[in-house]
């Protein structure tokens, strides 16, 4: 899938993986064999019961099914049997960030096989990990000079990918524009540019670029689901909610033209991945967009329908909380309490901690003992935000009881 940088899940560093081994096939396997092995692994490791194994299989297939990505991957791992074992030690040093030892070992390997592009690419990567930008570009220039004519596109893409992996996105964009003249495949150029623009949060530019990438109804294929998903995600970031239904309709039309069951399975998996990413980030309104599409594609799936109900309900709760945030009559302490209850129930501890860290604690401390105002706001929540109140009714009742215990008769009368 295209990586357009939308911040849903916490980003993790890419693992060093043997994609052919993960799929249980050889490096000379053709596209049909790659697909066959992928489907075997998906059946063996479904996402519901084996999420980590499934994601490894997914990463492998997403790379090996794409001829361009596969070429880049192969170019980085062409070691040959005689140095494969040594490279395993290099990977270990890199994993533990012992870059000096990794570089020493790589230089030994380079002396054994001086014309091996993969070794020079690894040395460039090690330079980049150490912020040695001069060394990185010098080594990448060496790789470019050594590469065959039909490998140069892949070398440029690898250089940009390396820069993106260390979050040098502006630099990656500069390199892409500078090396554009050497890229023969303009579709590959647009894919890379889209990925970088997404990472930089330049969503207006990304939106315009995607309009050029959207296929016609006559030419669309299953693999174009990546573009449609990026289109939706960009619309979300730009709050173009009015565009969402149009994009959903395009995806439905795509679905209706795809007959191959393996392709249909891939489309469902891609949409499920996006949906779960938004759920994980507690962005339920966005998750609802994708679960709607999944229910269209699999209308008899009872478990999916129940999931849709759950997401829809939580999306409504989330929207009430957004309205609460703009309500000047809701006391700040009560809004914060509502958000804490929401995050504890529907999000991660990390998200809760991030929310709490963002608060002006000195000011909140001054508000903390204003019992009458807090109790009054809870009554307003009950009246104006019924879902927020009912979802956490037990907690609100307990807080209200505590806050009203010390109030005098006049204060209690004002709360009625």
UniProtKB/TrEMBL annotation:
The keyword Oxidoreductase does not apply. Pfam families: DnaJ. Residues 18-77 form the J domain. Residues 159-186 form a coiled coil. It comes from the Bacteria. Keywords: Coiled coil, DNA replication. GO terms for molecular function: unfolded protein binding. One of its GO terms (biological process) is protein refolding. Gene3D superfamilies: 1.25.40.1040, DnaJ domain (1.10.287.110). Transmembrane segments: none annotated. One of its GO terms (cellular component) is cytoplasm. This is Chaperone protein DnaJ 1. The lineage of its organism: Bacteria, Bacillati, Bacillota, Clostridia, Peptostreptococcales. The gene is dnaJ1.
């Amino acid at each position: 899938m295209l990586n357009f940088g939308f911040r849903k899940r916490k980003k993790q560093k890419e693992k060093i993986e043997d994609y052919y081994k993960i799929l249980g096939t050889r490096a000379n396997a053709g596209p049909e064999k790659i697909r066959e092995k992928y489907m075997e692994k998906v059946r063996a490791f479904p996402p519901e019961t084996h999420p980590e194994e499934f994601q490894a299989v997914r990463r492998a297939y997403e790379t090996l099914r794409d001829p361009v990505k596969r070429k880049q991957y192969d170019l980085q791992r062409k070691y040959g049997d005689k140095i494969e074992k040594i490279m395993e030690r290099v990977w270990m040093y890199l994993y533990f960030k012992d870059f000096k030892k990794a570089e020493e070992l790589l230089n030994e390997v380079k002396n054994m096989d001086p014309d091996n592009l993969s070794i020079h690419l690894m040395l460039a990567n090690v330079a980049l990990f150490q912020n040695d930008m001069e060394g990185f570009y010098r080594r990448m220039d060496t790789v470019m000079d050594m590469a065959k004519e039909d490998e140069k596109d892949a070398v440029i893409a690898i250089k940009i990918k390396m820069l993106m992996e260390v979050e040098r996105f502006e630099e990656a964009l500069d390199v892409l524009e500078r090396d554009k003249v050497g890229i023969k495949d303009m579709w590959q150029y647009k894919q890379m540019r889209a990925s970088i623009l997404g990472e930089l949060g330049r969503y207006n530019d990304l939106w315009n670029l995607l309009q050029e990438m959207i296929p016609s109804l006559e030419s669309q294929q299953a693999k174009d689901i990546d573009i449609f998903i990026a289109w939706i995600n960009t619309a979300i970031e730009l709050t173009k909610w009015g565009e969402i239904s149009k994009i959903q309709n395009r995806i439905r039309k795509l679905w209706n033209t795809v007959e191959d069951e393996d392709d249909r399975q891939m489309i469902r998996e891609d949409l499920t991945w996006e949906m779960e990413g938004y759920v994980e980030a507690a962005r339920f309104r966005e998750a609802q967009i994708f679960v709607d599409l999944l229910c269209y594609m699999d209308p008899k799936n009872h478990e999916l329908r129940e999931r849709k109900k759950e997401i829809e309900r939580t999306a409504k709760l989330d929207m009430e909380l957004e309205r609460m945030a703009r309500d000047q009559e809701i006391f700040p302490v009560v809004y914060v309490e509502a958000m804490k209850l929401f995050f504890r129930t529907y999000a991660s501890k990390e998200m809760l901690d991030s929310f709490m860290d963002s608060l002006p604690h000195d000011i909140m401390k001054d508000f903390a003992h204003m019992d009458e105002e807090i109790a009054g706001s809870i009554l307003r929540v009950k009246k104006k935000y019924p879902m927020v109140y009912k979802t956490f009714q037990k907690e609100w009742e307990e807080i209200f009881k505590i806050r009203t215990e010390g109030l005098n008769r006049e204060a209690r009368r004002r709360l009625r």
